[in-house]
Specification:
Elements (H helix, E strand, L loop, with lengths): L14 H18 L4 H4 L6 H28 L6 H27 L5 H37 L7 E4 L5 E5 L4 E7 L2 E8 L2 E7 L3 H9 L4 E4 L2 E3 L4 E6 L5 E5 L7 E3 L1 H10 L1
Antiparallel strand pairs: 1-2, 3-4, 3-7, 4-5, 6-7, 8-9, 9-10
Helix pairs in contact: 1-3, 1-5, 3-4, 4-5
């Protein structure tokens, strides 16, 4: 649940949810009469068939709007799976209100809105849980298949200077941390249980993608750190956060508040 969400970020990729979930809702209600919905919606002369088509159309409209907002946010916010779970629950929650409003109008005042809302919550959540789980499992399987077929990443990290010349090749598991120092970065790494340093003329920005692909994370604007070498995170009375490293030769390094949560989740 705390892993990074991996689904399509474009609005077009969300169309499967906008189309398939309402289709499932209509088909499931017609075929199986879940929770006595067909009897519940025998309202007026039009019968349950008309009402289920309208309810499915309302669901499609709600999803079209919520998925538009989701797609816009997802392009800029790093969603985790539990964030997405809450979003899906919220979609059904919003739909339940519109479902109850429609149902109340066709009951012509026979029942209060809030009495109908209670039933609509039950209908919506117990039915829509199936397509949401199914589509999520399909996405997880797709992600796993993509991972299995992906080209394996290079085992060693290659560091290039500002002139694109290869200066250091090293096992990423040996890197303890990387510190910015003016126009250089200092790469601290383990070599036979001793900490060594390598100065590379490069910027933090130029190496960020490379080290990120090999497990190092930014903990401060001037530091990358390998989470496996972090012993614990501590906060002093002034609110300053530092990461204590496992090797006794290494001093603690600062951790910015904006990177604290991401780093703490990796420990």
């Amino acid at each position: 649940m705390n892993t990074q969400l991996r689904i399509g970020k474009s609005y077009r990729s969300q169309l499967q949810y906008i189309l398939l979930i309402p289709a499932f809702f209509a088909g499931f209600c017609f075929l199986y009469n879940p929770f006595g919905m067909q009897e519940y919606y025998q309202i007026g002369e039009m019968g349950f068939g008309f009402h289920f088509i309208i309810l499915s159309t309302i669901l499609m409209a709600v999803l079209a709007l919520t998925r538009l907002v989701f797609s816009a946010l997802y392009k800029h916010i790093p969603f985790l799976w539990w964030h997405y779970t809450l979003w899906c629950i919220g979609e059904v929650f919003v739909y339940s209100f519109f479902m109850a409003l429609y149902t109340t109008l066709f009951y012509a005042g026979e029942h209060s809105y809030f009495a109908v809302l209670s039933n609509c919550f039950q209908f919506a959540y117990l039915i829509l849980i199936f397509p949401y789980i199914f589509l999520t499992l399909i996405q997880i399987i797709f992600n796993k298949n993509a991972d299995l077929n992906a080209e394996p990443a290079e085992a060693l990290v290659k560091f290039y200077d500002e002139h694109k010349r290869l200066k250091l090749t090293i096992d990423p598991s040996a890197i303890v941390c990387i510190q910015a120092d003016s126009n250089y970065v200092i790469i601290r790494y383990m070599d036979n249980d001793r900490v060594k340093e390598f100065m590379l003329r490069a910027s933090m920005k130029s190496i960020e993608q490379t080290v990120g692909q090999h497990g190092l994370v930014r903990c401060h604007r001037s530091y990358f750190v390998n989470p496996k070498y972090v012993k614990l995170l501590s906060r002093n009375r002034e609110g300053m956060i530092t990461a204590q490293l496992l090797h006794p030769e290494m001093d603690s390094i600062p951790v910015s508040k904006q990177f604290y949560k991401e780093l703490s989740e990796l420990l």
